[in-house]
Fold this protein.
Amino acid sequence: MTRSNLQTSGFVRDPLLLCSLVFIAAIAAAGFLAPWISPYGAGGFEEKQILETPSLTHLMGTDGLGRDLLTRVLYGARVSLAVGIGTAMIALVIGTAYGLASGFTGGNLDQFMMRLVDIFYGLPDMLIFILLSLLFGRNIGGLLVALGLVSWVRFARIARGQALQAKEFLFVEGARAIGASRRRIVLRHILPNILGPIIVTLTYSIPAAILAESTLSFIGLGINDPYSAWGTSWGSLAQDGWRAMRTYPHILFFPAAAIFLTILAFNTLGNALSDLLNPRGK
Amino acid sequence: MLTFLLKRLFHGLAVIWVVATLTFILLRLAPGGPFDRERKLPPEVLANIEAKYHLDEPLSQQYLRYLTGILHLDLGPSYKYLDRGVKEIISDTLPTSVLLGLLALIFALMVSFPTGLIAAYFRNSWIDRLALLTATLGISVPHFVLGALLIWLFALQLGWLQAGRWDSAASMILPMVTLGAAPAAYIAALLRSTLIEALGEDFIRTARAKGLRENAVLFKHALRNSLVPVLTVMGPLTAALLTGSFVVEYVFAIPGMGRFFITAVTDRDYPLIMGVTLVYTALLVTANFLVDLFYAYVDPRIQVH
């Protein structure tokens, strides 16, 4: 068996990682299939059964307006995953392009571009999100842009570092020697080589975005769109539950658990991937 | 050494200037203003208000006024609180936030150092696995989830501690733990991995071979070499503490700067938002500067950099 096969088999044998993968798949399926899983409508309305504790008819109980909490949590998965994956993708595209451009150009422009990244990198994420959300509005699109504009710096740093390294690789020099175009060198020779660290960063960006979105929603600065077809984000559900925590802790418990477990699952996946791609760090 | 510090100082001031400028531009671009009401104000009234806050001047003049204000530590009037300026609000609330942040940092260091050391020393034992698992949990748990859980358990169920107050040492325990948990987990995991690396180095074998006691090997040789990576993350950790502080202040109803920041955003109280942003940036720049100083102390090679 080759070395990579050995590692792959160890990868799947870790029980925590396996649970994480299953959980992520389950959450994705739940969000996707929410209308078919839940017997209640998207709003989860069922009159006269307000603030019920969990029971067989309402597995997670109902909230202050009599909405089935399980239904709301299922729909909430859509928002959280969309925000997580959407943000990571925006950040990936902007950050990688910026980093590669900076690393390849080199010289003063590179220095200037990286100083800019340093400044953004050091600032508290949440501060920038909040400031940007004032500009872009508090809807899902605005939030994606704001979160993406903050997270790209991580990708930029990694892509640049890898680009600088890759410039020195012999096969890149070889490609240049036989007259390959710059575009071809970047796309065919360098991008595949820096894919590993980028994928790890991508995996960590998803939970970071989910965390940021739910925190913003919890403190009342998140998505502010009560009629969204997407459903209400877990952070907003937790905010509802927070107000009723003293008497009805279940309304807070389930969304909070969903947020925590999802972030945990993605972080575990990220750890496993970075161990896999960088065996020395173990 | 002096050039290095001067360079860092200059860099820090540049960061503050960039942030001040970007915030200014951002908030001027943002739609809606602090004086938008459901019922429109008569244009004459609005014009008077705008004149009072110099909003009728050209943007360049507003920007200059704003920058010179910062130089004089004058952050302007608040749009929302008529009796207090931004400076007064910040000087009233900043000490609370700084105290919370320092408590959390001390908590994080006191928990993470022993944990990281023990985990690294007994690597791959059940203690190590438990520590790693706890660290992964600690890194993943959002502040508001942990805060709510602690309040529910220790204040509502057990009744040991009170939540929603900030007046005694006992009332500070839960916020401190909530804010410090993630940094503690992060530092512990980092310290563990750098220590494991250090313990495998040749100079450790030499130290052991020449008969040094295990304590001396661990603390004098291994730990000192693992301090630099930990110091490297102190800057970002300060940023994380600042970010976390407004959530923790919100959850525990602590009268700190973060809570005012959240209200200021809802109220679109632009001068207060800009003031708080600047203070956060200044805190961060100071923290990074201190880290640089420590660096030079711990690792003399860095002075050349």
